[in-house]
């Protein structure tokens, strides 16, 4: 089977958001071929390069969402008129009154948005690109008309010129996949299945491949893209009109992705609830937990006695959503009950906000916990330490978890808590706040407290520090649960079964020819010929494309 793997800001780039699990998936499914179509978020990713690719990756095509300039060819008069019509219809759907929830548009609005999106894609295919048109004065004027139209939300009607320019620029970047040359018979039209590793812009090429060539779409979300946009558009990030318009756009795009995908695979029940709220059909949702490498934590997990019985450990990315301030205040209460307790914070700050937050936390720790010394001539030491993986105190990630008897998670916002699952692989007892998918991940193998409640967090930590037998029982149960649910093997087996399910239900009907123009034997996967009542209804088939697909010429190997 030939898979088109669609990523944004992740695989195959070093350090990408989805890099690890995508690499494990591709390497674990060596019987399939993969074409990677990657959207990068900035120049730094290109400079960092790619991870080593296995031989089953036949080709890689990339595009930047942050390319400056490159306005593309100017549109002719008729093309400009069509652009104004379709883009205005898209913006009209964005500014239309919402349904019961902002991200739950009614069917009529959803159809308007989808039709306008595909009409813009067809125009881009005919003219070459819409990058210039999406940033033009005509686009800004269309947005202004949509904001001033009857029935538009009050927040949108209050948009000023800087707000309109900011929204227009964001939409131009988000809609960049419309102008890519990824949809021909030598690209996504030739794959058997598109697998988007997130929603939003990463899934947009999959929507267009489905529209142009009838290629089925699978969407995996370990962190719901719409939720990430909502969190990023906080009150301090942009004007109210900008936040409202971008939230409406991403809500409409998410609804369209969920309507058209053959199967959705959230990484947790928490993500599944978001998808269902956005209109996803429950019958097409399969929860697939992230596949994590258990082997790297095996040595620590099999030797739980290595831990310092008085040490609490926090591991993760340092940013305000992790609420280290509450953790530090909770640790003051822990020290009152357990004077020898220590707290080790292991993590890297995320961006400028993360750097500022780390400085704030260091200052708070110095204020709350003055340096202590065992005697008059001993050097003082702070019971709270800040370090990074790779430092002498934590040479590797497993060493970071091995340093403490209890692992703490203090977040106020969380999707799938990766650090919590890693602690479970290490056989550590955990204390966590009840956010995101925390309860689903730990089951009954750890203690859970409300977020932003330092006293409850402290009481749970003290309870485990004082009871080594309970820590051991919870740690062993946590490791067993992690090995059963979150291993790489389970993840790969699940996706292999889903690939076969999609191919058997929704095969791409195309004629494959060799270099001489003759029919190519065995070009269509056997899964497409499963007998029985697997055929797609005719009405659904007509929605996928117009007419019969053109013959696809087979090639010996892909370009990388």
Entry summary:
The protein is built from 22 helices and 14 strands. Helix 1 (19-28) packs across helix 21 (488-505), helix 3 (77-94) packs parallel to helix 6 and helix 14 (324-337) crosses helix 19. The chain is an alpha/beta fold and 560 residues long.
Oligomeric assembly: single chain
Distance between the first and last residues' Cα: 19 Å
Helix percentage range: 40-55%
Q: How big is the Rg?
A: 26 Å
| β-strand number | 14
The low-pLDDT segments are 531-549, 554-560
Q: Kindly report the spatial arrangement of strands forming the biggest sheet.
A: 3-2-1-4-5-6
Main beta sheet: 6 strands, parallel
From the spread of the alpha carbons, the general shape counts as globular
Give me the secondary-structure category: alpha/beta
Q: Report the average pLDDT across residues.
A: 86
What portion of residues belong to β-strands? 5-15%
What is the overall number of helices?
22
SSE inventory with pairings:
Layout (H helix, E strand, L loop, with lengths): L1 E7 L10 H10 L4 E8 L2 H6 L8 E8 L12 H18 L12 H21 L3 H4 L2 H12 L5 H4 L3 H14 L18 E4 L7 H10 L3 E5 L3 H8 L7 H21 L2 E4 L2 H9 L20 H4 L6 E11 L5 H14 L4 E8 L1 H18 L15 E4 L9 H6 L1 E6 L8 H8 L3 E5 L4 H5 L4 E3 L4 H12 L2 H18 L2 H18 L6 E2 L24 H7 L7 E2 L7
Parallel strand pairs: 1-2, 1-4, 2-3, 4-5, 5-6, 7-8, 7-10, 8-9, 10-11, 11-12, 13-14
């Amino acid at each position: 089977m030939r898979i088109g793997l669609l990523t944004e800001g992740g695989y195959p780039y070093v350090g990408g958001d989805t890099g690890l699990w995508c690499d494990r998936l591709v390497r674990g499914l060596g019987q399939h071929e993969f074409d990677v179509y990657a959207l990068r978020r900035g120049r730094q990713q290109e400079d960092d390069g790619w991870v080593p690719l296995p031989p089953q990756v036949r080709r890689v095509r990339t595009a930047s969402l942050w390319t400056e300039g490159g306005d593309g060819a100017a549109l002719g008069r008729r093309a400009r008129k069509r652009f104004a019509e379709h883009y205005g219809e898209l913006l009209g759907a964005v500014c239309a009154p919402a349904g019961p929830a902002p991200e739950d548009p009614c069917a009529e609005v959803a159809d308007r948005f989808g039709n306008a999106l595909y009409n813009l894609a067809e125009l881009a295919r005919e003219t070459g690109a819409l990058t210039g048109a999406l940033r033009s004065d005509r686009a800004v004027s269309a947005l202004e008309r949509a904001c001033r139209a009857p029935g538009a939300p009050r927040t949108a009607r209050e948009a000023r010129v800087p707000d309109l320019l900011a929204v227009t620029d964001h939409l131009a970047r988000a809609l960049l996949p419309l102008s890519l040359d990824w949809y021909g018979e030598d690209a996504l039209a030739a794959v058997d299945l598109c697998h988007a590793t997130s929603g939003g812009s990463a899934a947009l090429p999959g929507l267009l491949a489905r529209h142009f060539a009838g290629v089925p779409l699978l969407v995996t979300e370990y962190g719901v893209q719409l939720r990430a946009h909502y969190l990023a558009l906080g009150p301090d990030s942009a004007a109210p009109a900008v936040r409202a318009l971008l939230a409406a756009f991403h809500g409409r795009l998410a609804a369209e992705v969920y309507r058209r995908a053959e199967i959705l695979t959230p990484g947790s029940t928490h993500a599944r609830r978001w998808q269902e709220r956005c209109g996803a059909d429950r019958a097409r949702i399969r929860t697939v937990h992230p596949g994590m490498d258990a082997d790297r934590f095996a040595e620590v997990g099999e030797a739980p006695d290595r831990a310092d019985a008085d040490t609490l450990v926090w591991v993760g990315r340092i940013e305000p959503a992790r609420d280290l301030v509450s953790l530090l205040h909770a640790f003051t209460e822990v020290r009152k009950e357990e004077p020898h307790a220590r707290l080790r914070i292991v993590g890297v700050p995320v961006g400028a906000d993360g750097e500022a937050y780390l400085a704030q936390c260091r200052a708070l720790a110095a204020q709350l916990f003055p340096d202590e010394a065992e005697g008059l001539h001993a050097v003082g030491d702070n019971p709270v330490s800040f370090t990074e993986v790779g430092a002498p105190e934590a040479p590797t990630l497993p060493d970071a978890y091995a340093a403490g008897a209890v692992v703490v998670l203090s977040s106020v916002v969380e999707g799938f808590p990766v650090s919590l699952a890693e602690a479970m692989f290490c056989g550590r007892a955990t204390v966590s706040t009840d956010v995101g998918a925390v309860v689903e991940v730990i089951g009954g193998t750890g203690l859970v407290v409300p977020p932003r409640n330092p006293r409850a967090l402290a009481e749970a930590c003290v309870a485990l520090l004082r009871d080594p037998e309970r820590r051991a029982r919870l740690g062993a149960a946590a490791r067993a649960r992690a090995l059963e649910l979150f291993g790489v093997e389970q993840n790969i087996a699940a996706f292999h079964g889903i690939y076969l399910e999609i191919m058997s239900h929704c095969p791409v009907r195309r004629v494959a020819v060799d270099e001489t123009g003759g029919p190519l034997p065995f070009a269509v996967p056997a899964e497409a010929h499963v007998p029985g009542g697997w055929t797609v209804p005719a009405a659904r088939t007509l929605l996928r494309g117009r007419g019969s697909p053109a013959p696809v010429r087979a090639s010996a190997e892909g370009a990388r």
